[in-house]
User: What shape does this take?
Amino acid sequence: MSPAGGALKLRRRRAQRAQGAVLFDLIEGFERWHLWRALAWKDIRGRYRRTVIGPFWTALNTAIFVAALGAVYALVWHQSVSAYLPYLAAGYISWYLFLMIVNESGMALITEAETVKAIRVPYSVFIFRVITRNVIVFLHNLAVYVIAALLLQVHWGWNLLLLPVGLLFVLPNFYWIALLLATVCARFRDIIQLVANVTNILFFVTPIFWKASELKHSWIATLLIVRANPAYRFVEVLRAPLLGQAPSLGTYYYLLLLMVLGGGATFLLLRRVYGRIPYWL
Assistant: This one.
């Protein structure tokens, strides 16, 4: 065998080992659900230790923010508070889930550097930890929203059953986004600050406290800010059922396509750099 042929065969073997390592990491990490669930609860308890209402502080902060902002913007846009407040509340708690997962993912591996270097733990355990922790917070916020929606007489109907379906579409996307950010930020720490700045901008340009229909006069703005905006899709697939509405089929197709393309791109990246991650931490 020629030297060139031997080198090519060696690269193929390395690629196959890396590919197997990435898949094994996901499978083994998912099987260790008891570990990342316990770590997520530990994070929640540690964050609100020695407080009276514990994690409901986040829900209370959300309720105060939504009530204040909702009252002001309902007056600015000449809408009734009873109609506008549920829209803002459902959108904000859905956005908050996306925001916290994205912002916390960059540090998911960095904060566990000593653990990664000392023992073999699948990286996906730390990714699932971030996602689970923020899903728990989302459920606390959801409890507050349900109370407010009952007071404001929001009619859900059968469309409320689409909320778990929406979670099934967003959570796999959150996984590859979190894994991608954790990997890239382990190598380039400046990305953490960049992501924080981008999410701050996204909050204002994404239809959360304003409605997408207000852009109907401009198809370019609708295309860029609404249809092509993944943050809007993540919010809308959860917000619509909370308002008693059904998300559009286009939203489901978009999230499914994003899952395939984003997950595939993340897999290709991890296949190349999986073995280098401990050296970056």
User: Anything to note?
Assistant: The chain has twelve helices and no strands.
